[in-house]
Amino acid sequence: MITTLARFAVFGTCMVVALVASPAAQAAPLSNDCSNALLTGNYGFSVNGTLNNSPTTSVGQIATNGNGTISGTETISENGVLGEDLSVLGNYSIEPNCTGTMTIQAEGRSPQNFAITVIPDGKQINMIEIDTGTTQLGTAEAQSLNSCSAAGIKGLYNLQAAGEKVGVGPLVFGGGVSSHGDGTLDGTATVSIDGVIFSSQRISGAFKIGKQCSGKAVLQVGSQGPIHLNLIVVNAGHEVLFIETDANTLLSGSLQR
């Protein structure tokens, strides 16, 4: 089963990690001062749930200048079928009470329509997909370009991830990872694969972060690997969203400190 771990483990859920929205939260007016102009700069996001009863997860980043349009990139795993670094275009509209709508369309995919709630400072967007046949939640968080380097990712991070081993069952894991500020990390995790528990699984690896707050990681889990991840840094380096990009995988999560 450790081979299973290597293929599907190590961010966000699910799957991620960053999913704090609820339908009730979407409807709650938060302010009377919101508008399209509130969203400016870059945001990292994760969206997780089901599409036509099959599991799906995505992690990416979007940019906007406050004019109601967005662009970016996204990696999607739909029931283990991967689309990596797909171009994204879209638009959004925000009401004065900080609720609104957003449409995101990845290259070669159907548009995804969301009801959204924006935190009044514009640093977080809670999302729920409203297309028929979908059950998906997501969160987008502001990025800070000043923190986007290997040196900015340093310290002890809590690790959580969730997904599914296609054809077997659900997969979750959690633990702790130390990032040393030089592009290397190590730690341990407890893994559950369809209810079978694997304790004290050792993690080691290396990563690179670019100036635009995205990056790549290669990890070793136990004696197995390599495991490849796409990374998105958010919240001034306090959180890293990730999604596995190996074939036939469906896993995403986050590192938080």
Strand residue content: over 45%
The helix tally amounts to 2
Radius of gyration, CA atoms, in whole angstroms: 17 Å
Query: SS-based structural class?
Result: mainly beta
What is the CATH class designation of the largest domain? Answer: Mainly Beta
Residue windows where pLDDT falls under 50 for at least 5 positions: 1-30
How many structural units, i.e. domains? 2
Shape: globular
Q: Termini distance?
A: 29 Å
The helix/strand order is HHEEEEEEEEEEEEEEEE
| Main sheet: strands, sense, barrel | 8 strands, antiparallel, barrel
What do these coordinates show?
A hairpin with a 4-residue loop joins strand 14 and strand 15 (239-244). The chain contains two helices and 16 strands. It is globular and about 50 Å long. The chain is 5% helix and 61% strand. The model is unreliable at 1-30 (pLDDT under 50). 47% of the residues are buried. It has two domains: 2-14 and 146-256, Porin, CATH 2.40.160; 23-143, Quinohemoprotein amine dehydrogenase alpha subunit, domain 2 (Lipocalin), CATH 2.40.128. By secondary structure, the protein is mainly beta. The protein starts with a helix and ends with a strand.
